[in-house]
## 1
Amino acid sequence: MCGIVGYIGNKKASPILINGLLRLEYRGYDSAGISTIEKEGLSLMKDKGRVKNLYNIEGIDNLEGTIGIAHTRWATHGKPSKENSHPHTDNSKTFSVVHNGIIENYNEIRKFLSEKGYSFYSQTDTEVIPNLVHYYYTQDVQTDNLKLLRAVKNACFDLKGSFAIEIICKDYPDNMIVVRKDSPLVIGKGDGENYISSDIPAILSFTRNFYFLEDLEFVVLSRNDITFYDRNLNPIKKETKTIEWNASSSEKDGYEDFMLKEIYEQPTAIRETVGAKFSEDSKCEFEELNFSKEYLESLNKIYIIACGTAMHAGLAGKNAIEKLCKIPTEVDIASEFRYRNPIIDNKTLCIFISQSGETADTIAALKLSKEKGAKTLAITNVIGSSITREADYSIYTHAGPEIAVASTKAYTSQVVLLVVLAIYFAEILGLENSYITSLKKEILELPKKIEEALKNSEIVKDFSKKVYQEKDMFFLGRGIDETVAKEGSLKLKEISYIHSESYPAGELKHGPIALIENGVTVISIMTDSNLVEKTVSNIQEVITRGAKTLVITNQNIDVNQFDMVIQIPDTNPLVSPILSIIPLQLFSYYISKEKGLDVDKPRNLAKSVTVE
Ligand code: F6R
């Protein structure tokens, strides 16, 4: 999705802005641009294509301005083009604006402004913003130093939809204004300089001290000050939060791609996420939570709501909660949940999973659940993200920044955190038993076992070389393994562009088996001793029809019947996705590399999906 960077300080802004945009590239985008305040007025340099194309724009090296805004655009309204790229300016070229989000009533505003004599050069919804600010600015007869802020505020109150906005004005060379509503934006506090970004990693090398904004809080930045205002423009105080991620965690550290680095970071991510929540002989503790036995006993249902990979982690969470706590648990896709009038009341706990904490559908589903009286618990990887500000409770995965679009370490960290949460609930409910004791032991051994699973890398790479030109693949599993089949199939689609389907292995014969023919690749996961024989029989059915087979297993099976078998360490079935997904992550990665694709920035995808 679109990315925003801003800088105000004493250094030349343009290199800092472009550097910030380069760090936001992973979010997905199709055009880029910057605007600075120069002696002679506003500069505006933008084009479709990659951020590095900005270096080819004539005059970019001559920019001297020490205040500027920048943007990577992911087209929604209007195709990728120079005109539609941000920043946008008003007719009089007094204001430059970058915007993330969607202005739903932009047609109405465009009509209003056209009637007042304004004209438009782009097809974007954003272009109404600088013109509307200009309209209010020129209507205001007062000349005090809040005039610009008032114009921005009045314009924002006319906007429907979601927005994170940065504005500079040639009349105010020492100020920048920012505001957000339902779209991410953070402020990084420096020394004599300040930074804006839609994402923490882009400015992490400049500062660790961040301010997070609530909806419709307005901010005026100068070189030495940051002043916050509420929606009525009353000054308010805010505290900075220190982000512990270190800047090098947003670098590749010698790996060819972020995705590979993040796959290899999983032992650490799991270790950090489990942290000190329990030891083998102590109960689980979450300092952020205070659930009582009475409350948990009163629950008639738990919903786990998320999108994509996070939803797949939710499926593992359901398995753990139902097994350990005996509370009925449903997993829902956020974009469906928000429109299907779900049955929720104060006896429902809704758990929302989001790596970024900024996914628009998940946030909307959370707001709906709150309105209907449920308690809400967010699981995210980003401190201060929007979802944590909406939820009643927030707990964190400690995976560090995930830069590759295809989620890997966030998924396994979410699975482990959900299982630990299930143990925490079970212990409050008084359901602890020897099964939980041994599960805890297994959880503590996961980092070591992930390292073991990663040793299959070369075998996976070899198999990838054999099948990377395929058009279709199938992922099969039963029980918990079927949830991993889903995630494996999604990973493959995302970064290799190979069509794939995932199915419960027993369901294949009810239709999809018609697609199996000579040479089709079928990947199956078999980690549950109770189900392994059944899955083997299903795989026999596809072998008979000529399929090539890859099996991921921790069971003792006759390996000779399959084309390739990858052995992973044995563990408790509740956490087995954390090990069985490893070869599948590597498989997608190597196929994508073999095809020469951009692993970290797959086409059409965005890291953080902040629009509906
Ligand atoms: C897949 C992937 C997506 C995200 C989904 C939700 O690799 O990354 O499916 O899982 O867009 O994103 P978050 O977790 O940020 O809410």
## 2
Amino acid sequence: MSEIAVSNLSKAFGPHKAVDDVSFTVASGEFVVLLGPSGCGKSTTLRLIAGLEQPSTGAISIHGRDVTQAGPSQRQISMVFQSYAVFPHLDVARNIVFGLEVRGVGKQERLARLARVADIVGLTPYLARRPAELSGGQRQRVALARAIISERPVCLMDEPLSNLDAKLRHEMRVEIRELQQRLGMTMLYVTHDQIEAMTMADRVILMKDGRIEQDGTPADLYVRPRTTFTARFVGLPPMNFIPAPDETGTVGIRAEDLSITASGGRLSGTVAAIEYLGADTRVSVDWQGLTLVARVPGASRLKRGDPAGLSWDDAAEHHFDIRGERRHAVRRFEHA
Ligand code: ATP
């Protein structure tokens, strides 16, 4: 059964449709990420599901019950939002267990759960502090701990890791995913960070201008992007695009599918930049006014200004039509 089902959901703010006819489901125990650029409507979608906004049209059900008109407290969910609402007058421990106290969970169980959750989010040394004595990242972890400790089967998170440094963000990605799987939580998670989406999600729903652009597994979006928008948004560096020679669309090639030689190749250009990343190197090549990026293993001997030939296998090509939609019938092109 789907734990969350959203059908034909729309939300207008004045004339602007922030969410425009969105439908999807999240199955029990599934981790689904709403991904997309700033302003695409992902937070509004989450707030509608949380009951913090009322939809203009459409329906929402949670645990098989229509909650479209229900208040947030009637929806049986936990939430973590970017603007972490912590109580300033309570210490960290009380902030974390507050919801359990309200629900009448016994003291012994509260303390046991607190110890476990504080350890997971790395707040054990800070339990006696007030929120004012914490950094932004630590406050965010208090909000995260509060959602985790509630052990509600459905959890909504909106950019919960945005204030953490890179190392902690990585650790928390792994922790949240591990915890979600262990507890069998159903998770709907909003982020604009494609690395979070790719590494954590069972399924990614990519949004653009209030609509769903593509809904699939991380591998679906990476390997078979349905549009050039998806192909650009998912993957680092973004997919390279070259015009189809007959100007009927574009051909996309991932950086790791391009190989570089000093001469020859299917396209000849000039090295514009070299970025050494340790395990691999990104080489940017200027070709007819376009910059194409190749990812080569280890270091590269090439220097800026060197001639560079680019090659790839036909099978690595992604073909898109003039509207940016994936072509199903694949045509082969030769570039001069
Ligand atoms: P971000 O990653 O920047 O938070 P988002 O994808 O979550 O972006 P939303 O916050 O859902 O985007 O906003 C979608 C659109 O709706 C934006 O154009 C935003 O300006 C608009 N919007 C959101 N909330 C309101 C509001 N309360 N009143 C008017 N417009 C709003």
